[in-house]
Amino acid sequence: MDAAELKKRISAYEWYHIINVAPGVETPGVKAHVPTQHKVLAVFDQIDFRGKRVLDIGCRDGLFSFEAERRGAAEVIGIDYNLSLGAIEVLIPYFGSKVAMHQMNLLDLKPSDFGAFDIVIFAGVLYHLRYPFWSIKLVQDVMTPEGVMVLETAVVLDDEAEALLYCPTGKDSPYEPSSCTFFNVKALTETLESLGLQPTTTEMVRGGRFPFVARGTLKREVGRMTLLCIRRGVTLDSERSSWSWHQRLIGRQ
Fold first, then answer.
1. Measured distance CA(67)–CA(75) in Å, rounded
2. pLDDT(209) > 80
3. Domain ranges of the chain
4. Where does 78-173 have alpha helices with state H?
5. Strand, helix or coil at 93?
6. Which DSSP category does 119 fall into?
7. Residue 234: which region, alpha, beta or left (left: phi > 0; alpha: psi -120 to 50)?
8. What is the value of pTM for the model shown?
9. Which tens digits make up the pLDDT trace of 90-124?
10. Contact predicate 185/157, CB 8 Å
11. What is the distance between the alpha carbons of residues 36 and 213, in angstroms, rounded to a whole number?
C-alpha cells in the first residue's frame, strides 16, 4: 500500500492518538494530549518490555500498545469500552501487529479473562471513573507479583497538606462532565501505597488549561501526573478490606 492509499484509508476514521504509521504518514489525533503521552513514553524507558505480557487499559488507537510491542513485549492486549475501528481495520493489519484489542469496561475485568500481566498501562482513564479505589484494586488483581503499572491521570495541584479527592459532577468538572475524579498528589500516591502499589517514578505536566480549558468551581490548578508503580503484594488496608473485619463492623451496629 503506497502512502497516498494509506492516507486515504486513515482519513476514513476518527483518531485520538497521533501515531507515526509510515514515512510522512500519521494518524490525525488530538495534539493537546501529546505532552502527557510523551511523559508516559519517558517512563517506558525505565521498563524492560522484552518477553513480557502487557495490558493496555483504555487503549484507544493503540499508541502505547504498539510501542510496547515494538519494545519486545511477548503479548499485548488492549481493552477499551469503545474500540478503535481504525486501529483494528487499518493499523494492526498494516503493521502486521499481534496486538489484540477487546471491547471491555475496566469494571468488568477479572483475572480469569486474560490471566496475569507483567506490565499494565493505565493512562488517561482513572479521572473518568466514579469508583477510583475499586478500579485500582481491579488493576492490581491482574498484575503479577512484582509487576509494574504505568499510571497517568489528572491531579489537583495544591499544598499537599491533606490527602484529598475532588469528585465534581456536570459543569463543576475542571475538564468536562465525564472527568469526575481528581486526586491531589498526596492522595493518589498514598492510595496506591495502601493498595500495595509502590510509586517509584513520577512525571508531571503542570497547568490548569491542559488539556482542556479549566472551568467550573474548582479554583486550584489541575495538572497531569504519570507514575511508575511496582506491585508489592502487601496492602496497608488489608485488615480493613477483609471480610472478617466487615463482619465485625456489622456486628457492632
1. 12
2. no
3. 31-252
4. 85-86, 92-95, 111-114, 132-141
5. helix
6. E
7. beta
8. 0.89
9. 999 999 999 999 999 999 999 999 999 999 999 99
10. yes
11. 16
d(CA 117, CA 149): 10
Q: DSSP 3-state assignment of 4?
A: helix
Of 74, 71, 94, 77, nearest in space to 8 by CA: 94
CATH, domain range 31-252: 3.40.50.150
What integer is the mean pLDDT of 201-230?
A: 70
- Picking from 146, 145, 126, the residue whose alpha carbon sits closest to that of residue 136 is 126
- Determine the pLDDT at residue 190: 95
User: C-alpha angle with apex 203: 138 to 179, nearest 5 degrees?
Assistant: 55
Cell, residue 166: 475532588
114 to each of 104, 143, 205, 219, how far by Cα in Å? 12, 11, 33, 42
Q: How many CB atoms lie within 10 A of CB 131?
A: 12
Residue type, 27: T
